[in-house]
Design a protein that fits this description.
Length: about 70
Amino acid sequence: MSNPTFQIRELKESEDPGVHDILYTDAAGVIRYSADVYDSAEEAEKAKAELIASGELPDWWDIYTPTE
């Protein structure tokens, strides 16, 4: 098991270039993604910092299953 982490991901399949979301990996290794998307990596980083500062994981995040 590892420590929970947040990561910024660029949505390559998005119609809008530069759109990002946030991935969260919990201590059990389950990866979830944010329902919110951000117009830039900077906006996503700001949202990530706010999530880390709050210490809470939103319960509406869906489980991410890589397709690659």
